[in-house]
Amino acid sequence: MSDATGKAAWTFYYDGDCGFCTLSVRILATADLFGRVKWTAFQELPEPPQGLTWEDLDAAAYLVVAPSVSLPSGTGRQSRLYRGYYAIRMLTLRLPPLFPLAPLLWLPGVNKLGEAAYAWVAANRYRISIRCRLKAGR
Q: Considering the domain boundaries, does residue 1 fall inside one?
């Protein structure tokens, strides 16, 4: 999942059939200046990643962090899964243009707001895509 430089040690799974999701990932991938995240539409997978189901992947974006990557809290030897808002929050630690947002997303109370905002967007992502005329594309 990663090489000696740590590239692609993080994998972000998203809904490739959602125009809003696809556009969001294109923007995030642009912020991935060093190519450290592998961006994968879950529809391209032959089977779900370990610990996830197709239903999980259809409900939210997921970030899988390989055990070779050092995290602030220490993760041991197993991959870690981050869902929805928490996946986005973790990306602020990996994508240099998003670094300034990282401290804000760890402030007390922000998790509840972030979870609610993510849940609303996830539930309405197809409506948002249609309304904004965003085409899906993997």
A: no
Q: What are 108-130's pLDDT values in tens digits?
A: 999 999 999 999 999 999 888 87
pLDDT in tens, 39-88: 999 999 999 999 999 999 999 999 999 876 555 555 456 789 999 999 99
Closest CA to 62 of 44, 47, 42, 34: 42
Give the residue numbers spanning the domain of 38.
Answer: 10-131
* Cα dihedral 88, 90, 95, 96 in deg (nearest 10): 120
Q: In this structure, how many other beta carbons lie within 10 angstroms of the beta carbon of residue 77?
A: 6
Q: Which residues neighbour 25 within 8 Å (Cβ) at sequence distance 6 or greater?
A: 12, 14, 39
Q: 97 lies in a domain?
A: yes
Provide the number of structural domains found in the chain: 1
Closest CA to 105 of 84, 120, 83, 90: 90
- Whether 3 and 61 have beta carbons less than 8 Å apart is answered as no
pTM of the model as a whole = 0.84
Q: Is residue 137 part of a domain?
A: no
